[in-house]
Structures are given as structure tokens and as C-alpha cells.
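Fill in residues.
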């Protein structure tokens, strides 16, 4: 057993030492200097028009995306699967710390809030209307 362990350590050490001499990363300082010399300077205003948010839309002045068209069935499925972490609330637009509140209260007061969210979202999905629950930053979205 000692010989097998020694052999494994030796092979492991040799495998790293064989690649130690090869330097695949070479920095060409002249190319970097040339790139900076050819670069154009932009301002923050130029960047705001060029940046695209996660939804593929250019950023607006308020920098928030509209959640009016959130799919009710997707919101219900997220609540059913990941409701204890409040992921469905982020899908529908809420405060950025709602995940922490859901997580640290064990799924929203030991799962009660998540259960009510599931029922409310199921009814909303059947009626195909959850607009009153979107962009809601309160802990109890149904109140």
C-alpha cells in the first residue's frame, strides 16, 4: 500500500513538473500599447446608450425593466420549485433583498408565505392575470 501511495504521489508530482517549463502565456507589451493608442475615449453618457440590460433592452432613465408581461405560469412554476428562496418574486420584480428575507425566514415564515404565494399565483395563472402582484416590494405580495 505504501508503494502504491508513493507511486501515485510521484506520478502526480511529475505531471505538474512536466508542464512547469512551458509558458503558454506571452504578453506582448507593444501590442498592448498600440491598442491603447488606437482606442477612443468615451464618456459615461456614451456608455449608457451602448449598455444593454439582461432583458435585451437599452437602459432607460429609471434603469428598471417592466414586469407587466411576466408569464403567470412561469411565476407559478418558479414558486412551486424555488418558492422557499423567493425566486418567483424576483421574476415578477421586487426588491433585490427579497431572496434573503425568504431564505432566512425558512421560506417565508416556515413556508406559509410561499404556500399562499403558490395558491395566489395558481389562481392568477388560471385567470391569466398577475399584474397586481408584479413590481410589488412588500413581503406579503397579496396584501
Amino acid at each position: 500500500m505504501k508503494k502504491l501511495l508513493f507511486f501515485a504521489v510521484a506520478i502526480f508530482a511529475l505531471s505538474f513538473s512536466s508542464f512547469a517549463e512551458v509558458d503558454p502565456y506571452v504578453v506582448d507589451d507593444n501590442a498592448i500599447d498600440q491598442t491603447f493608442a488606437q482606442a477612443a475615449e468615451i464618456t459615461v453618457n456614451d456608455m449608457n446608450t451602448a449598455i444593454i440590460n439582461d432583458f435585451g433592452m437599452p437602459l432607460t432613465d429609471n434603469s428598471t425593466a417592466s414586469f407587466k408581461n411576466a408569464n403567470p405560469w412561469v411565476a407559478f412554476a418558479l414558486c412551486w420549485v424555488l418558492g422557499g428562496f423567493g425566486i418567483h418574486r424576483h421574476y415578477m420584480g421586487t426588491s433585490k433583498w427579497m431572496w434573503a428575507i425568504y431564505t432566512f425566514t425558512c421560506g417565508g415564515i416556515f413556508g406559509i408565505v410561499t404556500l399562499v404565494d403558490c395558491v395566489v399565483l395558481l389562481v392568477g395563472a388560471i385567470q391569466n392575470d398577475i399584474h397586481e402582484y408584479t413590481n410589488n416590494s412588500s413581503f406579503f405580495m397579496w396584501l
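DSSP finds seven helices and no strands in the chain.
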